[in-house]
Amino acid sequence: MTTNPPPARATHRSLVLSEPRWVRWTLITLALVFLGGFLFLPLAVVFVQAFSKGLGTYWSALSDPNALAAIRLTLLVAAIAVPLNLVFGIAAAWSIAKFQFPGKNLLITLIDLPFSVSPVVSGLVYVLLFGLQGWLGPWLRDHDIKLIFAVPGIVLATIFVTFPFVARELIPLMEAQGTEEEEAAIVMGASGWQTLWRVTLPNVKWGLLYGVILSNARAMGEFGAVSVVSGHIRGLTNTIPLHVEILYNEYNSAAAFAVASLLALLALVTLAAKSFLEWHLRDESPPKAA
Q1: Whole-number percent of the chain with pLDDT over 70
Q2: Phi, psi of 176 (to 5 degrees)
Q3: Residue-by-residue DSSP string for 160-193
Q4: Which residues contact 262 (CB under 8 A, 6 or more apart)?
Q5: pLDDT tens-digit map of 249-278
Q6: Among residues 41, 51, 42, 67, which one has the least CA distance to residue 254?
Q7: Where are the alpha helices (DSSP H) in the chain?
Q8: Distance between CA 155 and CA 76 in Å, rounded?
Q9: Cβ distance 7 to 290 under 8 Å?
Q10: CA of 178: how far to CAs of 67, 96, 167, 181, 282, in Å?
Q11: What is the pLDDT of residues 124-153, one digit of tens each?
């Protein structure tokens, strides 16, 4: 009679639990100290400072015309950049996961490029390309097109820094699911669009939403690339992070923290949505082989 080996997950669990109790508690304590010192404490300070001069000052900072303009611009940029990245992410992930073609590895590498390039550098690249003294600057000026120090430049910079989020969430999910269901749908007469809409996307809907949430959070909080291409024109090209910087440099810390609390709230909402989606993804993921 043979005895089957225990499942990998159970073996891993037993190895973890076999560690001495003091090791486990030391690691847990270190993790909690780091979380408290580097995450919860700064987050709490933002809200404490935001309300340090009362609710009236807080509301006055948020209802300031320049703050409202920054909020509107941030929402506008995210509303443009995120859907574009959604379309690109689906197309790129579907191509990479479902097809074999020359240059596939190069495409994967290029998708990861924004992770390895400083946002400030990406902003400078756009200035070099589209600025008045850039390569395409004279042509854009002759055709009365302004990208740098204007909203289009901010949108371009935001698209660049949020480029990988949707694609990187979808690629491993689509690769893990294989192509059997798509092939069956095509054999039954479905078109390519019907296969994508009714077979592929429903299978990756939680990962898709997860990527959109991360992309939206990064789009609203991006500072480096947007700072370079925006020109810091108050009321016109300042997003929320840039408006916070201006207020802080003017020693108006209460207003700066009040506006910053909006980004902190966004981070908390994103964290809650991320945890919810991870819970769904974990429940829907097939068990790994031992």
Answers
A1: 90
A2: -65, -30
A3: HHTTHHHHHHHHHHHHHH-SHHHHHHHHTT--HH
A4: 62, 71, 240
A5: 998 888 999 999 988 888 888 878 877 777
A6: 51
A7: 8-17, 21-35, 41-50, 54-63, 65-98, 104-111, 113-116, 119-130, 137-142, 151-161, 164-177, 180-187, 192-195, 201-203, 205-221, 224-230, 240-249, 253-284
A8: 9
A9: yes
A10: 48, 12, 16, 8, 18
A11: 999 998 988 888 888 988 888 888 899 999
HEC profile of 104-115: HHHHHHHHCHHH
Burial (CB count <10 Å: 0-12, 13-18, 19+), residue 245: middle
Is this prediction's pTM over 0.85? Answer: no
Residues 153 and 128: their CA atoms lie apart, in Å, by 12
Residues 6+ apart with CB under 8 A from 278: 210
